[in-house]
Structures are given as structure tokens and as C-alpha cells.
């Protein structure tokens, strides 16, 4: 059981929403639920790519958490994204993934300074509707023709506090929690 305010109740999600805040339902905090009715979720544990690790992205060396050089983790190591074909659609996917609101720009040419380590992604082509960058069209991990002078960046509007969801206290694979 959780503690504190129960924020959502009686949601009727279609499954195409980007976050729970888009699901029809009563006003936030307007419910008669107690923590004995807390909802949970059990995820399959593997992404569509067959990797058991979740896709991780972060923005670094920017003025705040929602702006900076795009870095992704692969095989436990952080690396950068090349700015070839990098555009506002890819920035939109990144901002949504991070809960940072709408994308404002997709600067290239290492606007937030050159990264270090591998260049993990290049030629990323997103429609803007993907859940994560690894679902966008692209060559394989580490396949690139650029260096850190071409690292991609993102500037998002800021934190979208209404879209943040936390999953906690779940027993792995037990279906309980």
C-alpha cells in the first residue's frame, strides 16, 4: 500500500495515451479511494528489442535537467547521439521519455559541449510518436560516421509534473505489489 494523497481513480485509458494524465477520468485527487485499492502494474521485463535492460537516456551539461547533450546507455556504458538527421521529432521523443514537457529545439554541433565515450546512435529518424529513441529508425548500436563534434542536444520546455508515474515496491515476476 502507498501513502499520502490518492491522485487518480476510475481511469478509462484506451492504451494509446502517452501518459496517465491523458486518460479520461475524474479530476486529479477527486475520489473516494483508500490505499487498500492502490493499483499496480507488472511489466514483462524485456523491451521490444529483446534486451533485459530498460532504455535509458539523459541530458547533460545543459542549464537544467530538461536541456543538454543527449546521452544513452547501452551495455552499461553511457555514450552520445550523432546529430545527423537529428530533428525536432527525435527531440519530442526524448523530452516525453524524460517527462520534460514539449520539445523546444534539437540543437546539433555539440551545442552543450562534446561528450566522451562511444557514439551509440546515428541517423536517428523518429516520427515523434515513439516511446523511446531506440524505437526510432536507425542503424545498429555504435554504427556511425561522426565524432563528438556532432553530438545531438535537446531543449525541452521543462518538467511535466503531471505526467510522472512511479512504480514501487513490486515483487519481481510475482504479479503482486
UniProtKB/TrEMBL annotation:
Gene3D superfamilies: SRCR-like domain
Signal peptide, first to last residue: none
InterPro entries documented for this protein: SRCR, SRCR-like_dom_sf
Cystine residue pairs: 13-23, 82-146, 95-156, 126-136
Entries under Pfam families matching the protein: SRCR (PF00530)
Matching PROSITE patterns: SRCR_1, SRCR_2
Keyword Repeat: yes
Keyword Ligase set for record: no
Keywords from the named record: Disulfide bond, Glycoprotein, Repeat, Signal
Cellular compartments per GO CC: membrane
Residue ranges occupied by any SRCR domain in the UniProt entry: 1-44, 57-157
Annotated protein name in UniProt: DMBT1 protein
Species of the source: Copsychus sechellarum
GN (gene name): Dmbt1_2
